[in-house]
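Troubleshooting: if your tokenizer reports a length mismatch, compare your output against this known-good record of 344 residues.
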Amino acid sequence: MGNVTIGGDAPITVQSMTNTDTRNVAQTRAQINNLVKAGCEIIRVAVPDMEAAKALPQIKQGLGIPLVADIHFDYRLALASLEAGVEGLRINPGNIGGEDKVAAVVKEAKRKKVPIRIGVNAGSLEKDLAVGGAVTPEAMVQSALRHITMLEKMDFYDIKVSLKASDVPLMLEAYRLLAGRVDYPLHIGVTEAGTLFRGSIKSAVGIGILLWEGIGDTVRVSLTGDPVHEVSAAYEILKSLGLRQRGVEIISCPTCGRTQIDLITIAGEVEERLAALDEPLKVAVMGCVVNGPGEAKHADVGIAGGKGEGLIFRKGKVIRKVKEELLVEELIKEIDQIINGRNF
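Known-good structure output:
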């Protein structure tokens, strides 16, 4: 998809979707720029009408990551998006018209070598598959296979598939079933996961389980709010499983009765100061010497608190002791030294 390889042994890619009005080019592009800075590797925009489709060339201008057009109901919007030069389409072949309309889109996508993601959503499953209104994993898979077969009959195979649901067990079982039946790349996520706190937890559980089982090629953490948080959450999930290393991983203890420094404030400040750092670095922020250098010896660098003071350590080895009010600054200095001495 554009300059991004998906599937096989390629790295799992992180994507997100803008929540701006696509017709507002300046606003949409500004949000995309923020997402790119956060590490977004594929960006999707809604194309609800022709005015939005006409904005795509300006949105795409100079963009360094693939742009995906999200299409519903009107196949002409897909054709206009392809004409605008998007690198990917997200469609539901069952809701953009008859097979002749789908064929028109497929023909143009094939000509331009643009992949299509078949997006199955538990909330909008075909009525004949949702018997009695109940959505089952098998029904979601049948919907996906129905659409896959339609595209394959048109000799189109550049396909990615998603089976999203807000119910985590439903989503898990649907992806497991489909992964056993097709070899197409899978885009995974818990749709309508919720706000930052609850949505991140639901997404970490659902996405994390699938990734641990070897299922999933691209991910999106769907959160209500600034989509930059989606990208950050996705990388934390990937980092926790050892699948991607981007940015700082902060290890911090939960604090206990032994803690004699304001570790909560210190940890928050460290996280904020290092948020924009891209280098894969493990930083420990520990509350006392009991759980300090020893338990966090795998960290590149860290601090361990004492009474009004703390230790700076690297790979479990104590470097020096500093006053509490200087801990953050001294930690940042140590990180700067590590970065300047590395060849990233």
